[in-house]
Design a protein that fits this description.
heterodimer, A: about 270 residues, alpha+beta, 9 helices, about 45% helix, B: about 300 residues, alpha/beta, 4-stranded parallel β-sheet, elongated
Chain lengths: ~270, ~300
């Protein structure tokens, strides 16, 4: 409840901002400056204050938001990344092998601790995963660097890791346990959060692993924590990594034995 | 005296038979767009299957008319309203009016700009869907070239969020150049007319990305008339019309919104809410993921649902 009310307060502030700007813009348009401009500013501030008051005063779980709102999703993500996003993902990450098994068995109770699903519980699962595996193929496309990985040791790729700059999907937003669509004024604000989260994940990875280094990882065993949507049609599950690094020798030995003759051969079909 | 008694009996009889089945009102934009027709059918069929009477009404994207239809639903003592609304801002008051009259609203397809007024707002994951459409569009364009964007009605959040999804993908490709961004209000004839003038001014046009399928159909008709069927057109909705165009090699792709299932889901949640005495376990705002439709899977598409 407190999370929701603080979220609503944030929404109120955010939607108030462009209105204040619009008020100032209008004053400028009229061509009056100086004192009147100052009056406009204080009026705008006062109006913004009123708006927040009005919403709080409604007190019946109602909130309004405008499509013109300009939420600063980037700042919001910065505020929650290390304190909420990463702990939530670390706590809920499941092993790829377990998730794969639970998905095949449609064992929703085993998947629930590791993710969420949209559309009233009948949509595909957005899952948090930790995995170790061998990079079988690197596609260094200018728009989308991807790594095909073999995580079950059969020599064939079974997941694809996306490393941008173009990042697909909303799996990161949709797998977080504390993000609720109902707390957002509209889909646009909700979409902005999704892209800001994706961007942050990628920029964090590039802090320790530059793109050029990742692009040279063919044959390398790597370990990652990330998110994916369980139903990706005929394609490999597309994992957006949040942490990504070359695996330590012991971790590599467990999940990806080095004896694969076929590893690195080709992009395997699922 | 006997006459008066008979009149009372008649009135009572009429009242009694009307309440024999509880009523669910299904209010959408005009059925001229098959998307809204599919919603109305999905909702009313599900309502009937669950033992309700369905009252199907259209507001033609007119907020005043929508307000009158809500009054009708209130007067008819509907147990619930399934609504695809006539504008995010303008519809808040209408939905609140129903709430105050004790009638819960279950919104589909479009959001309103308030929470806590409707019981549910079940919408397509338009951002995810738009990204799918844009990726396909860029791929079809070979990553470069001049294109135009046809945007939906501005009062509808879906128009803005789809446009954002398109641009978050397309704008990362430096070779893609937008010549014009025009609102054609979800309308086929408007898209046709705008497309005619855009084509005259921009003979080098290579692609059109539209915020819905009716605008894609309008643009495609103009391109056919101008013998410019080389232009790549991508839509959004997954209508049977665009499916047929895709299978004939016309429009190249669209994005399916599960409209039929969405409407059914809203009725199912309304039914549960009514039976639970006004309680729901679902979050108010719910997203349904979209699916890319192209030549590979178009044949599996029928009335806004994809065969497994």
């Amino acid at each position: 409840m407190t999370a929701i009310s603080s979220r609503r307060a944030l929404m109120a502030e955010r939607s108030a901002r462009p209105r204040a700007r619009a008020a100032l813009g209008h004053i400028r348009q009229v061509g009056q400056i100086g004192l009147l401009g100052l009056c406009g500013l204080s009026l705008a501030v006062a109006l913004a204050g009123c708006r927040i008051e009005r919403r709080d005063a409604a007190g019946i779980g109602e909130a309004t938001g405008s499509a013109q709102a300009e939420p600063d999703a980037g700042a919001e993500v910065t505020a929650m990344w290390t304190t909420k996003v990463l702990p939530d993902l670390q706590r809920r990450a499941g092993d790829m092998a377990d998730l794969r098994q639970a998905l095949a068995a449609k064992a929703d109770d085993q998947l629930a601790p590791h993710g969420q699903r949209n559309q009233g519980g009948e949509g595909p699962w957005n899952l948090v995963v930790k995995l170790t595996g061998k990079v079988t193929q690197v596609d260094n496309d200018e728009m989308a660097l991807t790594l095909d990985m073999d995580t079950d040791g059969d020599g064939r790729a079974d997941v694809q890791v996306q490393l941008g700059p173009l990042l697909k999907g909303t799996a990161l937003r949709d797998s977080l346990s504390f993000i609720k669509f109902s707390d957002f004024p509209d889909q646009i604000a909700y979409a902005q959060l999704a892209s800001a989260l994706n961007e942050r994940a990628l920029s964090d990875i590039h802090k320790t692993q530059p793109r050029e280094r990742i692009a040279a990882w063919k044959g390398q065993t790597i370990t990652l924590t990330g998110v994916f949507v369980a139903d990706n049609g005929d394609e490999l599950p597309l994992v957006l990594p949040v942490t990504l690094a070359p695996a330590t020798a012991s971790a590599a030995a467990v999940t990806a034995p080095a004896t694969h003759a076929a590893a690195g051969q080709s992009k395997a079909s699922p | 005296m006997t006459k008066a008694l008979a009149a009372i009996a008649l009135t009572f009889g009429a009242w009694h038979s009307a309440s024999a089945a509880d009523l669910i009102a299904v209010i959408t934009p005009s059925h001229d767009n098959p998307f809204f027709k599919a919603e109305a059918e999905g909702a009313s069929q599900r309502a009937k299957a669950l033992g309700y009477e369905a009252l199907v009404l259209v507001h033609d994207d007119d907020a005043n008319k929508q307000s009158q239809l809500i009054d009708t639903a209130i007067a008819r003592k509907a147990k619930a309203i399934i609504l695809d609304n006539a504008g995010a801002e303008a519809s808040v008051a209408a939905v609140r009016k129903a709430k105050e009259a004790g009638i819960p609203s279950f919104l589909i397809d479009r959001e309103i700009s308030a929470t806590g007024v409707a019981v549910a707002q079940i919408v397509s994951n338009n951002y995810q869907g738009a990204q799918l459409g844009a990726e396909e569009f860029v791929k079809l364009m070979g990553g470069k070239g001049d294109y135009v964007e046809l945007v939906g009605r501005e009062s509808d959040t879906n128009a803005g969020v789809r446009s954002k999804g398109y641009h978050d993908v397309i704008d990362k490709h430096k070779g893609m150049k937008m010549l014009a961004r025009q609102s054609t209000n979800w309308s086929q004839p408007e898209a046709f007319k705008k497309m005619e003038s855009i084509l005259q001014a921009n003979p080098g046009l290579k692609g059109v990305i539209a915020g819905n399928d009716t605008m894609a159909m309008g643009a495609w008709a103009a391109l056919v008339a101008a013998k410019r069927t080389d232009v790549v057109v991508v839509g959004f909705d997954g209508s049977n019309d665009v499916r047929d165009s895709i299978t004939k090699g016309g429009i190249k792709a669209t994005v399916l919104q599960p409209a039929f299932r969405q409407a059914e889901l809203a009725v199912e949640q309304a039914d549960k809410y009514i039976k639970a005495g006004g309680k729901t376990t679902m979050p108010e705002k719910q997203l349904m993921d979209c699916v890319l439709i192209n030549a590979k899977n178009a044949s599996k598409l029928e009335t806004f649902a994809l065969a497994k």
